[in-house]
Amino acid sequence: MDTSHLGIPANVLDAYQFAQQTLAQTQPDCHLSWSLLAGIGRIESDHANGGRLDAIGNTRGTILGPRLDGSPGVATVPDTDHGLLDGDTVWDRAVGPMQFLPSTWHQWGVHARGDTVADPNNIYDATVTAGRYLCAAGANLSDPTQLHAAV
Predict the structure, then answer these.
(1) 109 phi-psi bin (left φ>0, alpha ψ -120 to 50, beta other)
(2) What's the CA gap between 66 and 126, in Å, rounded?
(3) Is residue 3 part of a domain?
(4) Cα–Cα nearest to 58, from 128, 102, 124
(5) Is residue 97 a contact partner of residue 103, using CB atoms and an 8 Å limit?
Protein backbone atom coordinates (compact mmCIF):
# COMPACT_ATOMS: atom_id res chain seq x y z
CA MET A 1 0.00 0.00 0.00
CA ASP A 2 1.34 3.44 -0.92
CA THR A 3 1.10 5.60 2.18
CA SER A 4 3.55 8.28 1.05
CA HIS A 5 0.78 10.89 1.05
CA LEU A 6 0.39 10.27 4.81
CA GLY A 7 4.10 10.42 5.57
CA ILE A 8 3.82 7.10 7.41
CA PRO A 9 5.73 4.02 6.25
CA ALA A 10 3.31 1.22 5.26
CA ASN A 11 4.75 -1.25 7.79
CA VAL A 12 4.24 1.22 10.63
CA LEU A 13 0.76 2.21 9.45
CA ASP A 14 -0.12 -1.49 9.54
CA ALA A 15 0.87 -1.61 13.23
CA TYR A 16 -1.15 1.50 14.08
CA GLN A 17 -4.21 0.03 12.36
CA PHE A 18 -3.63 -3.37 13.97
CA ALA A 19 -3.61 -1.70 17.40
CA GLN A 20 -6.84 0.16 16.61
CA GLN A 21 -8.51 -3.10 15.52
CA THR A 22 -7.21 -4.96 18.58
CA LEU A 23 -8.46 -2.32 21.00
CA ALA A 24 -11.80 -2.12 19.16
CA GLN A 25 -12.25 -5.78 20.11
CA THR A 26 -10.82 -5.74 23.63
CA GLN A 27 -11.89 -2.24 24.77
CA PRO A 28 -14.57 -1.08 22.31
CA ASP A 29 -15.78 1.78 24.52
CA CYS A 30 -12.36 3.43 24.30
CA HIS A 31 -12.65 4.44 20.61
CA LEU A 32 -8.89 4.43 20.03
CA SER A 33 -7.94 5.70 16.57
CA TRP A 34 -4.88 4.70 14.63
CA SER A 35 -4.27 8.38 13.87
CA LEU A 36 -3.75 9.11 17.58
CA LEU A 37 -1.12 6.38 17.72
CA ALA A 38 0.43 7.74 14.53
CA GLY A 39 0.70 11.20 16.06
CA ILE A 40 2.44 9.79 19.10
CA GLY A 41 4.67 7.55 16.99
CA ARG A 42 5.69 10.49 14.80
CA ILE A 43 6.73 12.60 17.77
CA GLU A 44 8.37 9.81 19.78
CA SER A 45 10.41 8.05 17.07
CA ASP A 46 9.53 9.46 13.64
CA HIS A 47 7.46 6.32 12.98
CA ALA A 48 10.14 3.86 14.13
CA ASN A 49 12.92 5.76 12.39
CA GLY A 50 11.06 5.89 9.10
CA GLY A 51 9.83 2.30 9.24
CA ARG A 52 13.20 0.65 9.89
CA LEU A 53 11.64 -2.66 10.98
CA ASP A 54 12.27 -6.31 10.26
CA ALA A 55 9.62 -8.63 8.84
CA ILE A 56 7.88 -9.18 12.22
CA GLY A 57 7.99 -5.56 13.35
CA ASN A 58 11.16 -5.38 15.43
CA THR A 59 13.08 -2.13 15.13
CA ARG A 60 16.38 -2.31 13.28
CA GLY A 61 18.49 -0.88 16.06
CA THR A 62 17.34 0.12 19.50
CA ILE A 63 15.36 3.34 19.86
CA LEU A 64 16.25 5.05 23.15
CA GLY A 65 15.31 8.38 24.65
CA PRO A 66 17.80 10.49 26.60
CA ARG A 67 19.19 9.34 29.94
CA LEU A 68 16.75 10.67 32.52
CA ASP A 69 19.55 11.91 34.74
CA GLY A 70 18.19 15.29 35.81
CA SER A 71 20.42 17.31 33.52
CA PRO A 72 18.93 20.65 32.36
CA GLY A 73 15.49 20.12 30.86
CA VAL A 74 15.49 16.39 31.63
CA ALA A 75 13.51 14.56 34.32
CA THR A 76 15.26 12.53 36.99
CA VAL A 77 14.26 8.85 36.84
CA PRO A 78 16.63 6.41 38.53
CA ASP A 79 16.96 2.96 36.97
CA THR A 80 13.93 0.69 37.49
CA ASP A 81 14.90 -2.36 35.40
CA HIS A 82 18.60 -2.98 36.13
CA GLY A 83 19.27 -1.94 32.53
CA LEU A 84 17.31 -4.86 31.09
CA LEU A 85 15.35 -2.83 28.51
CA ASP A 86 17.37 0.36 28.16
CA GLY A 87 20.93 -0.85 28.80
CA ASP A 88 21.43 1.71 31.58
CA THR A 89 21.83 0.51 35.16
CA VAL A 90 21.92 4.01 36.66
CA TRP A 91 19.13 6.00 34.94
CA ASP A 92 16.02 5.05 33.01
CA ARG A 93 15.56 5.84 29.34
CA ALA A 94 12.41 5.61 27.27
CA VAL A 95 12.52 2.59 24.97
CA GLY A 96 11.13 1.65 21.56
CA PRO A 97 9.12 3.40 18.87
CA MET A 98 6.40 4.49 21.32
CA GLN A 99 8.97 5.45 24.01
CA PHE A 100 7.96 3.57 27.15
CA LEU A 101 9.79 3.94 30.44
CA PRO A 102 10.87 0.48 31.61
CA SER A 103 8.61 0.63 34.69
CA THR A 104 5.60 1.54 32.54
CA TRP A 105 6.44 -1.22 30.06
CA HIS A 106 6.67 -3.80 32.84
CA GLN A 107 3.19 -2.83 34.03
CA TRP A 108 1.42 -2.45 30.67
CA GLY A 109 3.51 -4.25 28.04
CA VAL A 110 1.86 -6.99 25.98
CA HIS A 111 2.94 -9.15 23.12
CA ALA A 112 0.59 -8.43 20.26
CA ARG A 113 1.40 -11.12 17.72
CA GLY A 114 4.05 -13.38 16.33
CA ASP A 115 5.85 -14.51 19.46
CA THR A 116 5.48 -14.90 23.21
CA VAL A 117 7.63 -12.01 24.44
CA ALA A 118 6.35 -8.48 25.03
CA ASP A 119 9.04 -6.28 23.49
CA PRO A 120 8.94 -2.46 23.51
CA ASN A 121 11.13 -2.54 20.37
CA ASN A 122 8.43 -4.40 18.41
CA ILE A 123 6.07 -1.97 16.67
CA TYR A 124 3.02 -4.22 17.15
CA ASP A 125 3.69 -4.80 20.84
CA ALA A 126 4.45 -1.12 21.38
CA THR A 127 1.37 0.22 19.59
CA VAL A 128 -1.08 -2.19 21.24
CA THR A 129 0.51 -1.43 24.61
CA ALA A 130 0.23 2.30 23.94
CA GLY A 131 -3.44 1.78 23.14
CA ARG A 132 -4.00 -0.16 26.37
CA TYR A 133 -2.26 2.59 28.31
CA LEU A 134 -4.30 5.35 26.65
CA CYS A 135 -7.54 3.43 27.23
CA ALA A 136 -6.77 2.72 30.89
CA ALA A 137 -9.44 3.33 33.49
CA GLY A 138 -12.22 3.17 30.93
CA ALA A 139 -11.29 6.26 28.94
CA ASN A 140 -13.51 7.19 26.00
CA LEU A 141 -11.11 8.79 23.54
CA SER A 142 -13.95 10.13 21.39
CA ASP A 143 -14.52 12.64 24.23
CA PRO A 144 -12.01 15.48 23.75
CA THR A 145 -11.59 15.99 27.50
CA GLN A 146 -10.82 12.32 28.10
CA LEU A 147 -8.56 12.22 25.03
CA HIS A 148 -6.58 15.18 26.35
CA ALA A 149 -6.27 13.59 29.79
CA ALA A 150 -5.13 10.25 28.32
CA VAL A 151 -2.45 11.84 26.15
Answers:
(1) beta
(2) 18
(3) no
(4) 124
(5) no
Query: Over 66-106, what HEC string results?
Result: CCCECCCCCCECECCCCCCCCCCCCECCCECCCCECHHHHH
Q: What is the pLDDT of residue 139?
A: 87
The answer as to whether 79 is a domain residue is yes
Look at residue 5 in the predicted model and tell me its pLDDT. 66
What is the sign, positive or negative, of the torsion defined by CA atoms of 83, 88, 94, 95?
negative
Parent domain of 113: 10-150
Which residues pair with residue 95 across a beta bridge?
Answer: 64, 100
> Mean pLDDT per segment of 10 residues, for the chain of length 151 residues?
73 97 96 97 97 96 96 97 97 98 96 86 98 92 92 89
Q: What is the pLDDT of residue 6?
A: 80
In a domain, 1, yes or no: no
Q: Is 18 contained in some domain? A: yes
> What is the C-alpha to C-alpha distance for residues 73 and 66, in angstroms, rounded to an integer?
11
Q: Please tell me the pTM assigned to this model.
A: 0.93
CA distance 135 to 126: 14
State the total domains in the chain.
Answer: 1
What is the pLDDT, as a whole number, of residue 138? 83
